[in-house]
Amino acid sequence: MAEAFLKNAWYCAGWRDDVGLGQKDLVARRIAGESLLLYRTAEGGLVAMEDRCPHRSAPLSLGRKEGDAVRCMYHGMLFGPDGACRHVPGMDKIPPGADVPTYAVCEKDGWIWVWMGDPASADRTLICDAYDPHDPTLTLRTNSIRIDTNYRQEIANLADLSHISWVHDETFGGTDRWGYIRPRHSRNPRGIETKYVVRNIPAPRFAKHLFPADARFDIQVHVRLSVPCNFILNFRIHQADGETSGDARGKVLLDTYTSQAVTPRDENSLDYYFSWGTSKETEFPGVVDLMYRTNYEAFLEDKRILEGQRQRQLEYPGAPEIDIVHDAGPAQMLWVLDKLLAEESGAGAAA
Amino acid sequence: MAEAFLKNAWYCAGWRDDVGLGQKDLVARRIAGESLLLYRTAEGGLVAMEDRCPHRSAPLSLGRKEGDAVRCMYHGMLFGPDGACRHVPGMDKIPPGADVPTYAVCEKDGWIWVWMGDPASADRTLICDAYDPHDPTLTLRTNSIRIDTNYRQEIANLADLSHISWVHDETFGGTDRWGYIRPRHSRNPRGIETKYVVRNIPAPRFAKHLFPADARFDIQVHVRLSVPCNFILNFRIHQADGETSGDARGKVLLDTYTSQAVTPRDENSLDYYFSWGTSKETEFPGVVDLMYRTNYEAFLEDKRILEGQRQRQLEYPGAPEIDIVHDAGPAQMLWVLDKLLAEESGAGAAA
Amino acid sequence: MAEAFLKNAWYCAGWRDDVGLGQKDLVARRIAGESLLLYRTAEGGLVAMEDRCPHRSAPLSLGRKEGDAVRCMYHGMLFGPDGACRHVPGMDKIPPGADVPTYAVCEKDGWIWVWMGDPASADRTLICDAYDPHDPTLTLRTNSIRIDTNYRQEIANLADLSHISWVHDETFGGTDRWGYIRPRHSRNPRGIETKYVVRNIPAPRFAKHLFPADARFDIQVHVRLSVPCNFILNFRIHQADGETSGDARGKVLLDTYTSQAVTPRDENSLDYYFSWGTSKETEFPGVVDLMYRTNYEAFLEDKRILEGQRQRQLEYPGAPEIDIVHDAGPAQMLWVLDKLLAEESGAGAAA
């Protein structure tokens, strides 16, 4: 049977600034069922290793940085950034097996990424493209929350934006139009990409006070989703052009960008790293604050429905679930995930 | 093996006013291992259905009332009060299987009752009689608490009032006389009924300040217990008549009434709905307040001993427990329960 | 397979004053997977019995002391200090089996000790010697904390003081010298004993302000460890004598004493009872307060590393752990424990 998590994939381990340069900056993360220590060397290079001393399993994240190395503060064993044990106090030789497994780790677009498979096979071209909070043409705010559900439910949530009409009715919604869109998804080896326009809708609830009551808008949507669960979205809000098909052609009122990376801790819990904001070109005073606050509220709306769903699924194990038209995106995305999981499983079996 | 819970029984789902008429009044309940949504139509009719959308298991109680229907606020599916799916946004046809199981539900004596078996077999004559808080001849206060124990222990608690002398020594007790009563129980198909007099006892602790220290009382007790765990009690407090047998014949000082319905959530937890008060005829200023406060304290006394008991039973699984004379009531009540459970189990096996 | 806990051993159940003489002093303890009630008779004698009524498993610790007996406050059964049921309200005869198992219990050196095996085989000579907080030649402070780990990890912690250099770097440490000591342990039937000198070290962190920066000290260490997990320690702090071997011969600056008893509640949690202080002869104003505060902080340091370790061990079940030179003490101590466990297991099998 396939494992719950892909090994050969990059998982987001947080925002660039989550791991600092200070002596105390030893960051513990739980990713895809494994416990990791993250830290930076004096030069700023990232190190990721198993957060477990090979001697008696003490967390290295409770240890002490010493130059580019980390010392376990239970019995003083010292490990280099390659995981190799450099010293055991009181011993002349390093005992065999005293090394800590390491992970390939790097930064891209403001995020820290960890490859959970064999570091030798880590392929940086597989890291998803995202909107960088440090991009000078954008103004983005960042944060993270924890949601107690399985990441497959989060994939399904993100691959079907019809839920904006319902889950986010009081924040980003305010119209049922999202619930009637049937977008076409184009599939690629590690995800799906989707483009469409939601036409002639009133301002979303959070922005109603900014526009006349009868103002109508077209929203040009561009979504890129990739495994394990990265969601890169551009909403471009246009004045409604009165057309019924084709790209939105009305005046661009606001061009908004969000990057969202979902990292499973284990089968019941995940970390959600997100940014939201606008292009500098279309930004106006207060709009990024407003969007950030709205977005945070919207994530709490997702958290509530996802955790409720998880609870029912645990209460009714094996209960049948029917499919509807909006499951096309989730189904394609989970198909990609399951295909990759099966390939890893087969490769493992063959090896 | 028999199931833990009766299906063919009415379970109390709360007080009449727990489920309001407002747009937001979607009430979630856990009853006998199932998750239920309760709401009222605009006309006030009660609806009870599984609190799980058949699409992706989101709780319908996180949804939205629309007229007599409820909309799942994950993907917008709309369900009528009969559980039938009326609409899936973006689809012309309702997919097969898109219905939500419903439960027979009704009101009686101020309580809401749900039949957990096949609604077609729901028999309203099986709902226990209780004292209605809206009865104009009574003044009753109501509330509920949660107790983390198995409901069989709660049955045993209620079917043997000798515990008043010990568990409730500081509230309703104040004499060990309850501990020596050996009442006769008469059995009926769904429970037991018990009548006796506790004679020549001092005022209960909570009411000592109302009477001379040497005042003595007879308490005429009438208990009706029915499955799953409904406890309907009348305590009539008389001036002691000096007799040693027969009904109490002294002057009636206070005629008190309580209805208590215990609804298991699951095997480890239950909801306890209760009222307490007096007849208007014997009520005097302050007495119902005093009784209500005392009663709430007494339920916390029960909660403490029952949860302690549950903890020990989980720590010592299978440890022998001896029987004493006061187990006659509990044994008869559990015998009735087990007989009905076995019948359902047999009926299930035969079918 | 051997059990997790020794039966034929004395476990510390707390400090002498934890169990008072008052009517309400019914103390519940969880020891080695069993639930105990502790109380004192009017004469001050200690009683230890299973904290479970044989009738319906209610905790006797929620009961009431009556003279030298305890009454279960669920249905009023009364038990003498020998566990024998004396009375069941409403019954003339005591039903068979209505007795509560008791434990051998006594006091020694300020601690209460319980023998978890057959009381008839309780051998008081097996209680470890400790420093008594009531000893007129000592000034000791006492307290207790809870640590959520398996007691075997606590044994390993206490049998290897090299961790002082790392875990306690900011309290008792301040030098890596502890991490290089390779002491010889002498084994006895129920534990190990260890003596050595840590030479020519600066003042420990907590006491640096009391001495010139270049002051150097020798610490004469004497540890006695016994099953299940009792740790009796004397640190004698001398002016450094400049020697490299033999006992410390410099002037004694402070002679400190600590007794620590670790009692497993179950496989995941333990209670830790400890004292710390000095001889009256070497005490100076404020030093015992300072040591006590430091010691409490140090126990929180241990708690943090031990609970982190436990978490990793549960996350990575069966993951290999390598051995280092400092495991000699832990290995000997766990060897003694496992030998005794195997003997009990074999005796049980033979019987």
Automatic annotation (TrEMBL), chains A, B, C:
Rieske domain: residues covered: 10-114
Keywords: 2Fe-2S, Dioxygenase, Iron, Iron-sulfur, Metal-binding, Oxidoreductase
InterPro entries (UniProt xref): Cholesterol_7-desaturase, Rieske_2Fe-2S, Rieske_2Fe-2S_sf, VanA_C_cat
Source organism superkingdom: Bacteria
GO molecular function, one term: metal ion binding
Name of this protein: Aromatic ring-hydroxylating dioxygenase subunit alpha
The species this protein was found in: Sphingobium fluviale
